[in-house]
Amino acid sequence: MERITAGTLHTSYQLGSLVFTALRDGHVDMPTTRLRQPGDKVFGDDFPTQVQLVSGQLRLSVNAFAIDDGADVTLIDTGAANTWHPSMGLLPEALSEANISPDRVRTVAFTHTHLDHIHGLILANGENAFPRMSRLLVPRAELDMFRSESRLSRFHDMAEPFDGGQRLQEGFEAVAAPGHEVGHTCFRTSSGGKAVLVWGDIIHVPSLQFECPEVSWEFDADQAQARASRLMILAHASDDQLYVAGAHLDSPGVGRVVRAGDGFVFEPL
């Protein structure tokens, strides 16, 4: 997978016959107490020194990913638009920088239904972000959660539920990874004998959770299950030599995972 274009808000790669693009929606700063040790314990004086803070907080990149087959574009996650922090909502600018017209986005697939992944369906001005979208894929276990979002009511009936293990289109498969949310899902896309696993929120703080995958996140719906899914996905990515793309890996958030002792190391592409 080779980089073909890059800018402030995007990086595009050639993946077989596909163009795979990382899109930066922005960032969010969170308190260090969001990190949780086994037993839901926060760090105190033992806070890991390798984690770099910004004004005392954790800075998480927020990324979405586009798959372009030359005709249509599949978009995985959509960012937050104007529904959370003002440091987010840059997806339209990222698409423009990457020369991807919103009219070409025909499929949108959600890794899960947290607000920083779904609300980019609607622009800050209230218009539809993707006027020609014809397919909206939502994890089956989170369909009711999606339909509880009143801001997105115009899309409720359009939502198409899917399950882990389901082949959603040519070279595009859902991989169940519950824990962060009940239906949290990764997407494996492949072309030309190469594959990339878009893994949503498997990792929130890359400077720590690759080395210490037992560390979880306060907002995990089930921390023990999230921990098990993280270990499973990291091992899968490493052992099968997959490229990975993460919603909260430092932008552009694309690389490989390799084993290192009891943990793992991320090698940015």
UniProtKB/TrEMBL annotation:
<dbReference type="InterPro" id="IPR036866">
    <property type="entry name" value="RibonucZ/Hydroxyglut_hydro"/>
</dbReference>
<keyword id="KW-0479">Metal-binding</keyword>
<protein>
    <recommendedName>
        <fullName>Metallo-beta-lactamase domain-containing protein</fullName>
    </recommendedName>
</protein>
<feature type="domain" description="Metallo-beta-lactamase">
    <location>
        <begin position="61"/>
        <end position="248"/>
    </location>
</feature>
<comment type="similarity">
    <text>Belongs to the metallo-beta-lactamase superfamily.</text>
</comment>
<dbReference type="GO" id="GO:0016787">
    <property type="term" value="F:hydrolase activity"/>
</dbReference>
<dbReference type="InterPro" id="IPR051013">
    <property type="entry name" value="MBL_superfamily_lactonases"/>
</dbReference>
<keyword id="KW-0378">Hydrolase</keyword>
<keyword id="KW-0862">Zinc</keyword>
<dbReference type="Pfam" id="PF00753">
    <property type="entry name" value="Lactamase_B"/>
</dbReference>
<dbReference type="GO" id="GO:0046872">
    <property type="term" value="F:metal ion binding"/>
</dbReference>
<dbReference type="InterPro" id="IPR001279">
    <property type="entry name" value="Metallo-B-lactamas"/>
</dbReference>
